[in-house]
Amino acid sequence: MRELRQHFERQRSAMVALIRQLVELESPSNNKPAADHCAAFLARELQARGAVLKIHRQKHAGDYLEARFPGRGKPILLLGHYDTVWDVGTLGQMPWCETHGKLYGPGVFDMKAGIAIMLFAVAGLREVRGRLSRPLIISLCADEEVGSPGSRAITERLARPCQAVLVLEPAMGTAVKTARKGAGEFTLKVTGVAAHAGLDFAAGHSAVLELARQIERVSGFTDLRRGVTVNVGVIRGGTRANVVAAEAVAEVDVRITGRRDQAAIEQKFRFLRPNNRHCRLEVTGCITRPPMERTQAVAALYRQARSIAGELGFELDEAAAGGTSDGNWTAALGIPTLDGLGAVGEGAHARHESVRLEWLPRRAALLAGLLERI
Length: 374
Prior knowledge:
Blueprint: H1 2-10, H2 12-24, H3 32-48, E1 52-56, E2 64-69, E3 76-81, E4 97-99, E5 102-104, H4 108-129, E6 136-141, H5 152-159, E7 164-167, E8 176-180, E9 182-191, E10 195-196, H6 207-219, E11 229-237, E12 243-244, E13 247-256, H7 260-270, E14 280-289, H8 296-312, E15 318-321, H9 327-332, E16 337-338, E17 345-346, E18 354-356, H10 360-373
Parallel strand pairs: 3-6, 3-7, 7-16, 8-15
Antiparallel strand pairs: 1-2, 2-6, 4-5, 5-18, 9-13, 9-14, 10-12, 11-13, 17-18
Helix pairs in contact: 1-4, 1-10, 2-4, 4-10, 8-10
């Protein structure tokens, strides 16, 4: 392990250079030409490191990259995404910057530094050890930030024959993630009866009032003890203050900790009925990403990672995250999945997004050690 860490310490400047190139290739989820430009760069980097590359063309998002490295036995899947939440042009307000031991720029933390860690770990392991213990698959999509609508099926197909999945999403503090909440979105649409608020108030039936009562009800589905949260994040309705509203809509975010809660929360939404019989209530939505649960197999992966970290000279904790990743899909298939193996930093999706430079060699060595030992 000491040899691996020393190797990646020597590679620190090269890692930073690659991260900068990736950050300055802006690749928002909603801009396919920009994302494909980044994908073409990554394809060249993967092939330069000896990967056999397959490109899955995508209609709306950037193309999906599947890179394979040979070895014996069941493969390990390294999972990541190169899309970001930042529009093209953000570099003008958030330029690349290296200062006070941190790297700044749009997407640097979530998760372009993680991609660099992935590439250097694989290349470094082959250079230092001369081989890979198992076959490796690197998968990089460009629609993770919008729910992976086009890439989910490919990710699940690649994961099914694998021994384990290692996700290069950012760390949580310095910890890896052994659990993630599942997530879903629901929409409540109320149709009422419009009327003049002054001349004919009694003839109207307010969609806004009915929606307000429904919001209070669904907010009561929150159960913090079980890790279930229901957040009504967007509401809109009505046309003017002097009109009894004919329509109102609420958009709701739901998070669950265990798969046992999925059917229950979906049933609660399906069973909603209007309080005012003159109003119509339409409920759509579901849990879109299952939770990643801390199974015995996930815990075993974490123990391996913690042991390797100890040999490298640092402690490695575990954490549960409220957000989701493509690791939710692979964990739901029953494939042992360890998440948060990417960069240490802060500010995902925020203007102060940054990566701590000192941790890059350690995280690369940790990943290389896992690839060697699993």
